[in-house]
Design a protein that fits this description.
Shape: globular
Order of helices and strands: EHEHEHHHEEHEEEEEEEHH
Strand order of the largest sheet: 3-2-1-11-12-9
Number of strands: 12
Oligomer: single chain
Distance between the termini: 33 Å
Number of helices: 8
CATH class: Alpha Beta
Number of domains: 1
Bound molecules: fe (ii) ion
Length: about 250
């Protein structure tokens, strides 16, 4: 099985389009979408259509921004810019696309016994996994060998083998073979709003037969996404951060 792993598009259809163009000639059995399709960026309808247009089997979980946009969560913990973007997105989405976002499934979702996906943590869809302390608690209670997650917008691989945790920050294109005796929490990074000081859109692929994860960064017309944000009247810092990768 070959998987394409996409996360945190955040209404940035220019970034998502570049990732889809880059992967268009490859065959994937399943596409895994880790949530936060919308929120922050100015093209939420286009993102929903791009996800619906993905070929083959597609598994999607909802993100915290999807929940706030759909009215499932109040977003009281959001900062002002995130809150403004969520309200704007709710108003901008078509009735059908808002219904699609509202009905996105809660993670974790099991792909099969050895593979799961979630937005934040498999224990709590809204929790952030930044540190080995966060990861240790998950590994203690969640026994699935490989779990892909999003939410932090930081490409990374956490692993545990005989109670020893390792954290890898993924800084450029690369690959890693997964050890069958080790368990993994893998974050592909964000397509629409990277936060590891690299503004390029991030995504992953996973070849299950080879047990190999590949991570990639893709250039896209950032200035177009920024112009759309400004034109939509969204907070300008949401445009500025895209070229900084923060
Ligand atoms: Fe996100």
């Amino acid at each position: 099985m070959r998987y394409l792993i996409l996360s945190d598009m955040h209404g940035n259809a220019d970034a998502f389009g570049a990732v889809l163009d880059r992967t268009a000639d490859e065959d994937f059995d399943v596409t895994l979408v880790l949530g936060d399709l919308v929120g922050y960026g100015a093209s939420p309808n286009r993102i929903v259509e791009q996800v619906q247009g993905l070929r083959g089997k597609v598994l999607v979980v909802r993100g915290n921004h999807d929940k706030v946009v759909a009215g499932i969560d109040s977003g009281e913990y959001f900062n002002q810019a995130a809150r403004a973007a969520a309200d704007w997105t709710t108003a901008a989405l078509s009735t059908e696309n808002l219904k699609y976002v509202l009905e996105l499934p809660q993670g974790p979702v099991s792909v099969h016994a050895g593979l799961a996906i979630c937005h934040g943590s498999p224990l709590d869809e809204d929790a952030y996994v930044f540190s080995e302390v966060d990861a240790f608690e998950i590994f203690r209670r969640h026994k699935v060998p490989v779990t892909f997650f999003g939410h932090t917008h930081v490409p990374s691989i956490f692993s545990i083998h005989e109670n020893r945790i390792q954290v890898l920050a993924l800084r450029s294109d690369g690959s890693m073979r997964l050890d069958p005796e080790t368990r993994y929490l893998v974050n592909p990074g964000s397509i629409g709003q990277p936060r590891d000081r690299n503004p390029l859109a991030a995504y992953m692929t996973y070849d299950e037969a080879e047990r190999t994860v590949h991570w990639f960064r893709v250039e896209y017309p950032i200035e177009l996404a920024q112009a759309r944000i400004v034109k939509a009247g969204l907070p300008s810092l949401l445009a500025e951060r895209l070229s900084l990768g923060i």
